[in-house]
């Protein structure tokens, strides 16, 4: 089955109604997905991306009904992940000499996944173009880390269609392909879920890349993604939405998530939530049990929140494992501009709250005082939890709450705990404490493996040779993936881990 997109462009992709998991089982797909592949027929015939390897046979059969495969002149692979290049091996078995256009990084990924270094690869860089006849060209734009180092977008001139691959897509499946045809609430929910769970760590890169694309002043009549809808109605709406999400996004929302051995930490969560609502009925408060609720939904709510409260019972003097897993994931997603606090019930030692507080601080959250309750909270403890919520609501308020004093602070005995800092080794060098050997310390970008060498500096960003890492300015960006200093670690630290 094919769907006409515009002029000589057809969708030749694959719908996947049944899929429940992506990236192992880390991303739950609640509305299916699609793998969008496009066939352009001008004087040259071009295939943009393929589909997931599980659908190779179906894809080839479908494509053969549309075109004699020998008549495909070029294949463009915008991104090598197997949901897009998976069917390439089956296709290349039929048309083995067809030129493949992709980034240099993609050759590594495609070869690593398919083991065919002999394929006819043609490296493209940002600004390169390919003439496909009838006055039309494909223009390539590298978009490293959206979503892999190999990613790029392809723009078709004259038709003004941007084939954006993962960017601007969503895991969403509907018989209708265009954005104006589908349920708008479902669509935007899935866009946000996709952005918050997959693209958040690369937000600074998203902004830089979008501004780079906009600087070309190319008209955009459609954005043809690799998952979900084709944006044809007001297509740049999703670009502007991405710019908003990438810019330290937050709403007037607080997310509370916890795990609870004996329901005691859950009781605390409920009371804290009520306390927040007492003081600020306008703030949206969402409460989740990590053992029972969808992880990606929780993370989407964290993304939308101005602050989070994380609770755990203390078990063996540490936090419960599902909370530890969530904190690891939150650390990787590198949320910015958010506040956080820890809470939890304990019997002998409240180590979980201390550890959560430290993990939240290390993950870049602005942490506030925590709250511990010994055993099952009694009436007094529940009032303390509620008052804790009231204090959080006041200190995190985004608007005037000048009338709250009449509502709150009836509990003079309320004493939040000053959470003990659990020291963890730091990976960042500090100028104040550097030694001469620190001055020569090479730093590794943990995202793309680019290495900063003080002896070379980074003259393109006015960092002169001989500049130690601690003197590299905070606005420095990795020249390969565009991420900031926070993703760099000393080479020795990386090797030791
Ligand atoms: Fe849809 Fe990064 O693959």
From TrEMBL:
InterPro entries: Anaer_NO_rdtase_flvorubredoxin, Flavodoxin/NO_synth, Flavoprotein-like_sf, Metallo-B-lactamas, ODP_dom, RibonucZ/Hydroxyglut_hydro, Rubredoxin-like_dom, Rubredoxin_dom. Residues 440-491 form the Rubredoxin-like domain. It comes from Shewanella ulleungensis. This is Anaerobic nitric oxide reductase flavorubredoxin. Keywords: Cytoplasm, Electron transport, Flavoprotein, FMN, Iron, Metal-binding, Oxidoreductase, Transport. In the N-terminal section; belongs to the zinc metallo-hydrolase group 3 family. Residues 254-393 form the Flavodoxin-like domain. PANTHER family: ANAEROBIC NITRIC OXIDE REDUCTASE FLAVORUBREDOXIN. The gene is norV. SUPFAM superfamilies: Flavoproteins, Metallo-hydrolase/oxidoreductase, Rubredoxin-like.
């Amino acid at each position: 089955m094919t769907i006409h997109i515009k002029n000589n462009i057809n969708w030749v992709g694959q719908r996947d109604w049944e899929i429940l998991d992506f990236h192992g089982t880390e991303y739950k797909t609640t509305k299916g997905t699609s793998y969008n592949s496009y066939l352009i027929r001008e004087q040259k015939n071009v295939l943009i991306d393929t589909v997931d390897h599980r659908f190779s046979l179906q894809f080839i059969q479908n494509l053969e009904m549309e075109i004699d495969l020998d008549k495909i002149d070029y294949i463009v692979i915008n991104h090598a992940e197997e949901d897009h290049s998976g069917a390439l091996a089956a296709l290349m078995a039929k048309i083995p000499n067809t030129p493949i256009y992709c980034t240099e990084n993609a050759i590594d990924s495609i070869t690593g996944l398919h083991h065919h270094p002999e394929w006819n690869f043609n490296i493209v860089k940002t600004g390169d173009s390919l003439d496909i006849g009838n006055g039309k060209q494909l223009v390539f734009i590298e978009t490293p880390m959206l979503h892999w180092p190999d990613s790029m977008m392809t723009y078709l001139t004259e038709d003004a269609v941007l084939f954006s691959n993962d960017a601007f897509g969503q895991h969403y499946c509907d018989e209708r392909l265009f954005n104006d045809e589908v349920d708008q609430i479902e669509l935007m929910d899935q866009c946000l879920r996709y952005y918050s769970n997959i693209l958040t760590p690369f937000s600074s890169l998203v902004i830089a890349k979008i501004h780079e694309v906009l600087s070309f002043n190319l008209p955009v009549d459609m954005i043809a993604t690799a998952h979900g809808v084709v944006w044809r109605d007001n297509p740049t709406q999703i670009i502007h939405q991405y710019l908003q999400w990438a810019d330290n996004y937050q709403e007037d929302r607080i997310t509370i998530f916890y795990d609870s051995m004996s329901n005691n930490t859950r009781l605390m969560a409920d009371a804290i939530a009520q306390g927040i609502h007492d003081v600020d009925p306008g703030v949206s408060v969402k409460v989740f049990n990590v053992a029972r609720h969808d992880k990606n939904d929780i993370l989407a709510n964290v993304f939308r929140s101005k602050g989070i409260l994380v609770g755990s019972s203390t078990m063996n003097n540490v936090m419960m494992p599902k909370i530890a897993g969530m904190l690891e994931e939150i650390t990787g997603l590198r949320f910015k501009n958010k506040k956080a606090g820890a809470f939890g019930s304990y019997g002998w030692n409240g180590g979980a709250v201390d550890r959560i507080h430290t993990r939240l601080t290390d993950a870049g959250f602005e942490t506030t005082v925590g709250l511990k309750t010994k055993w099952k909270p009694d009436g007094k403890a529940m009032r303390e939890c509620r008052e804790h919520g009231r204090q959080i609501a006041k200190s995190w308020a985004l608007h005037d709450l000048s009338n709250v004093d009449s509502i709150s602070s009836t509990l003079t005995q309320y004493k939040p705990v000053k959470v003990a800092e659990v020291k963890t080794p730091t990976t960042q060098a500090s100028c104040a404490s550097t030694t001469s050997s620190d001055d020569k310390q090479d730093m590794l970008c943990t995202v793309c493996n680019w290495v900063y060498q003080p002896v070379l500096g980074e003259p393109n960003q006015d960092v002169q040779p001989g500049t130690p890492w601690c003197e590299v300015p905070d606005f420095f960006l990795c020249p390969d993936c565009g991420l900031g200093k926070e993703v760099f670690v000393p080479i020795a630290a990386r090797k030791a881990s």
